[in-house]
Amino acid sequence: MSDARKITRRSVLKSGIVSLGTAAVLPKAHAVQKKPGEVRVLFLMGDIWHNSVRMESHWRKVLGVTGWRLMFAQSSRFVTPEVLADTDLFVFARYAGGDSLGWSPDGIVEERQEGYNFISEEQEKAIWDNVVNRGMGIIPFHCSIWQTDSKKYERLIALKEPLMHGPLMETTFYNLNQEHPITKGVEMYVTIDEIFGAVMMDDVAYTPLMRAVQIHTQPDYLKFDHLAAWAREEGKGRIVMLNCGASHECWWEKSFKEIMWRSAHWAMKKDIPVSGLVDGRFKDRE
Q: How far is CA 194 from each of CA 160, 238, 242, 245, 277, rounded to the nearest angstrom?
């Protein structure tokens, strides 16, 4: 039987067995002191329904030239208050519930411990406190809208209620906000995606960034028109909710990558430099 079942957060902290320089694992994240001027971006990518390999690969390609420290959590359990306290931007795509795979330090795994639940009460409080009181930016996207038991988090993203998405299908992203730096000058685009419906809170200010329309012709003609991205500020922090990013195809879209690039800078209150995006690809990054 694997010793993974015996591993606790305390033992991981004590042993320092895995590096967060290549995966967001707790020991090295706090063995290495954050340097002055260093920018740390923490990612929690995907689940059984949403391809974490694709997500990590594309985020690395988009932000890899920034010089920021990009850290990818291999389990929700490593998104701790201590890690978040040193994080400048938290990017995540995870619906409520347990990790699809329980984490193990073993190179070859025969058995796995149960996956850690996200968002826990401790994580929700830490996310709120770091955004509102310290100014950490967050970019939840797609399935991260589905955290119905986390009311403070829902308030952060200005959401009253999420509505389940339909099938993956042709989706037109339009009405891009030409007054906001994330979407100003970005072209509308058509790709394969799925979009959650969003009932927004009445008493929380937010700025729509773009909408998405899908037309279902089978079995009946149905037209769904949803808010596909929005931005807002809460306390000292900034939030960009990207209600998109489910399919393989959408990650190759020039406009979507441009939005990713700009969202990361805007959420951290940084000037937005020219992305270097050429003909749908980032030169020297793909």
A: 20, 25, 12, 8, 25
Q: Which two tokens stand for residue 90?
A: 């938290």
User: How many angstroms separate the Cα of 210 from the Cα of each of 28, 126, 174, 254, 265?
Assistant: 39, 29, 6, 15, 18
Domains and CATH numbers, the chain: 3-282 (3.40.50.880)
Locate 285 and state its tokens: 């990054």
Residue 272, preceding peptide bond in cis (omega within 30° of 0)? no
Query: Rounded to an integer, what distance in angstroms lies between the CA atom of residue 167 and that of residue 189?
Result: 18
pTM of the model: 0.86
Q: What are the DSSP E strand ranges found in 46-176?
A: 69-72, 89-93, 97-98, 117-118, 137-140, 159-163, 169-174
Q: Locate 262 and state its tokens.
A: 């700009």
pLDDT in tens, 35-66: 899 999 999 998 888 888 899 999 999 999 99
User: Is 25 in contact with 74 (CB distance < 8 Å)?
Assistant: yes
Closest CA to 34 of 82, 86, 71: 86
- List the one residue out of 149, 157, 82 whose CA is nearest residue 121: 149
Strand partners, 9: none
The answer to whether the CB of 144 falls within 8 A of the CB of 93 is yes
The model's confidence at residue 216, banded by pLDDT at 50, 70 and 90, is confident
CA dist 157 and 223 (Å) reads: 25
